[in-house]
Design a protein that fits this description.
By secondary structure, the chain is of the alpha/beta class. Helix content is 44%, strand content 15%. Strand 7 and strand 8 form a beta hairpin. Strands 1-9-6-2-5-3-4 form a seven-stranded mixed sheet, sandwiched between helices. It has a two-stranded antiparallel sheet with strand order 7-8. Helix 5 packs parallel to helix 7. It is globular. It has two domains: 43 residues; 211 residues, Glycerol-3-phosphate (1)-acyltransferase (3-Layer(aba) Sandwich), CATH 3.40.1130.
Length: 259
């Protein structure tokens, strides 16, 4: 079935629900669901390794980050819900929470501010938590560095150790090609830590996406190991190397990102 036909069927199915919904349900439930279902169709999202997502209990999901827009976080959240029936929490940049205009929709999408406290608290409630170890460095890197993992921040290892949570490395292919990013602008003289992308296109290109949940990794250390800086650094580097090798293998057999 052609993409246009899929769009029409998807839109027709959900528009009927939109007509009968009240305002709050419309704004915060049906419209986001409608948007994400369209993105799934537009990007032709495929998922592998969904059986690695636990049906119950805590887990820290650590994907590569790319695509400038943050669509990778939205699509990943949606696919985790579809595959596991669970509502994950996504640790997200604090800029989402500066105003109610962006904070309320972000919260409805399962986004929470990316702090150690929030990550630990959610995992101790036996929730699924998504954390991008590269942070904005991965999301805003120029397209010339596509699929080259940026240095992993160490916080995700500390969170996993403190809560004794398994880590599920996750690969997202296709988001890199959806937006072409020319450069990364560092505006630290205006606001500490402020980095912005310089995308060539605002409307995403119809790249074909693939999300792969790799086998869970259980760190063989107790919670006290979170205070061992050298060990935490070593574990973060090891996981980055494993994810980079897995990305390289997938890219070698993927072929075109648009076919």
């Amino acid at each position: 079935m052609k993409m246009k036909q899929l769009f029409r069927l998807k839109a027709k199915d959900i528009l009927g629900q939109l007509r009968t919904a009240n305002r709050e349900t419309l704004l915060y439930k049906l419209l986001p669901h409608f948007f994400l279902e369209l993105m799934k169709t537009y990007f032709r999202v495929q998922v592998e390794g969904a059986d690695n997502l636990p049906k119950r209990g805590r887990a820290l999901i650590t994907p590569n980050h790319s695509g400038v827009s943050g669509f990778d976080a939205m699509v990943l959240h949606h696919e985790i819900m579809r595959a596991s029936g669970r509502y994950p929490r996504v640790l997200t940049h604090h800029l989402w929470f500066l105003t109610e205009t962006t904070a309320i929709p972000a919260q409805r999408l399962g986004f929470i501010e990316a702090t150690t406290k929030n990550g630990v608290r959610s995992l101790l409630k036996n929730q699924l938590v998504v954390l991008f170890p590269e942070g904005e460095s991965g999301n805003f890197k120029p397209s010339s560095q596509a699929y080259q993992l940026q240095e992993f921040k160490r916080g995700f290892v500390r969170i996993a150790l403190q809560t004794q949570s398994p880590i599920i490395p996750t690969l997202i292919l296709g988001a890199e090609e959806a937006h072409v990013n020319l450069s990364r602008l560092k505006l630290t003289k205006f606001l500490r830590g402020l980095v912005l992308p310089l995308p060539l296109n605002l409307i995403p290109l119809p790249s074909k996406w693939k999300i792969i949940f790799l086998a869970p990794i259980r760190l063989p250390y107790g919670a006290e190991a979170a205070d061992d800086k050298e060990l935490v650094h070593e574990l973060a580097d090891e996981l980055q190397e494993k994810m980079q090798a897995a990305l390289n293998r997938e890219l070698a057999r993927r072929g075109s990102a648009f076919i």
